[in-house]
Amino acid sequence: MRRFLLDHASKKPVSFHMPGHKGSDIFRRYGCGDFLDHIADCDITEIPGADNLFQAEGIIRNTQEKYASLYGADHSYLLINGTSGGIIASILATVRPGGKLIMARNCHKSVFNALTLGQITPVYAHPELLPGPGITGGVSPEEIRRCLQEAPDADAVILPSPNYYGICSDIKEIAAIVHAAGKVLIVDQAHGAHLKFFHRFGYGEGMPAAAEDSGADLIIGSIHKTLASLTQSAVLNLCSHRVDRYVLEDKLQAIQSTSPSYILMGFLDLNADLLLEHGKEAIGEWRENVDWFYREAAGIDGLTLLDAPGLDRTKINLDMSALGLTGAALENLLISEGIYSELNTGNILMLMTGIGNTRADMERTVRALQKIASARRPVNAHSNTAGSAGQPADGAKSAAGAAPAPLPGPLRQIPEDKEFVPLLQAAGRVCAGSIIPYPPGIPLVCPGEEITEEIVRWVSDLRAAGEKVIGVNDRSEVLVGKIRG
Ligand SMILES: Cc1ncc(COP(=O)(O)O)c(C=O)c1O
């Protein structure tokens, strides 16, 4: 594995995938090279003076306070098991065991894992489908209102904002609705830890507001995905008195590793200082580079850039289907130019920019796209060249004119007795695990949901197209409930 990693790094690729730092350059640029040079030496444990993540009173508390001040939160918590750990702890701290949670159907799998851990019943809020590109948009305030009427006994609401494509929901309005019903709003802001700083430093024009500024109670953000810290490091912001912070802290210690990495926490500290001392410059350059990219790319024939209400422009969604290219085909062409993207779905290829991307990354990518475009002729119709595999794998509600996403069958009991059966024979059975196309890592079928014929076909198509689907084993079997009797 080390060989692969070193070989890849030696090729100096352009990274438009996680993590957001994009390599060592940004740390050296802002004078933090000493920490990079002493990684192994700084990998310590809870020696005297090193504080304790689960009873923070010293150096860790100091970093947490930097984040609370940066985000304007009542309390911030460092997370060393990613946003995933923070999501699970937040749900277990706010939803009673055996209770109900209103959740967007396109939530990350960590939310589904929390359901299992807490014996929690989901009530699904369906995100909109953007008819043109066929990807999921935000969850509307009306949909949340509908769910609250359907489940007045639910304890909390959770949704991802931004979603994987960068599209945010109207958190301000949703928070008002959720609070009027006396519930807690948790926002999975895994992909939007940077939003706060675009506004704070004056570069937020046209960008969605951060959930911390929109009234959400608990916000979990993957610092590692877009800002300057290592993979798995994240922050949980508590911005409300509706949540008992001691219960939350207890869940955080239960969910996370008892050997928290001082390297991860050290990088979180470094990222906080970078934002405090150089935030205006770093975020300003990021904004300028992204705007430059959109301007230049707009001049490339056959390339469409996604523009949707609530879009975080730092996620650049490319569509070259007018030239006959699916997202996957475009991804491969860019890889041959040394440019690596984050996600392809159907005709869309998403470039996830981060604080570490430079103008040189943008220029190299624009040149590559120009080369790709000039080597192709437009195809007749703007078709979905990906066929069924181009649909969003996250249970989006279909809008008029858009290809319907395969929704799972009705929600039944989560099975206790389980068995593996071949995927091709699974139609009509109740799923006992999760079936998760990856990326984006959002369950297509969750425990307790019926597997339909359409789902079987869709998953088979995805696998035939070489896509990874977690939950289908190497014998092409899925876990379902045993039929009694
Ligand atoms: C929408 C969403 N939420 C949560 C997560 C989990 O974040 P982390 O990787 O920091 O655990 C992801 C990961 O990709 C995600 O896409």
Quick structural gist:
This protein has 485 residues and is an alpha/beta fold. The protein has 15 helices and 19 strands. α5 packs across α11 (245-255).
Q: What would your notes on this structure say?
A:
Helix 5 (82-94) packs across helix 11 (245-255), helix 7 (141-150) runs parallel beside helix 8 and helix 12 crosses helix 14 (359-374). Residues 381-393 and 395-404 have low confidence and may be disordered. Among the domains are: 26-276, Type I PLP-dependent aspartate aminotransferase-like (Major domain) (Aspartate Aminotransferase, domain 2), CATH 3.40.640; 406-481, Orn/Lys/Arg decarboxylase, C-terminal domain (Ornithine Decarboxylase, Chain A, domain 4), CATH 3.90.100.10. It is globular, with a radius of gyration of 22 Å. The N and C termini lie far apart (48 Å). It contains 15 helices and 19 strands. 35% of the residues lie in helices and 15% in strands. The strands form 6 sheets. The chain has a 7-stranded mixed beta sheet with strand order 2-10-9-8-7-3-4, with helices on both faces. Strand 5 (129-130) and strand 6 form a beta hairpin. The chain has helices spanning 2-10, 25-29, 33-37, 59-71, 82-94, 109-118, 141-150, 171-180, 195-200, 223-226, 245-255, 262-297, 327-335, 359-374, 453-464, and strands at residues 14-15, 75-79, 100-104, 121-125, 129-130, 135-136, 156-160, 184-188, 218-221, 234-238, 304-305, 315-319, 339-340, 343-345, 348-352, 418-422, 436-438, 468-470, 477-481. With 485 residues, it is an alpha/beta fold. Pyridoxal-5'-phosphate (PLP) binds at residues 82-84, 108, 110, 160, 164, 188, 190-191, 222, 234, 441.
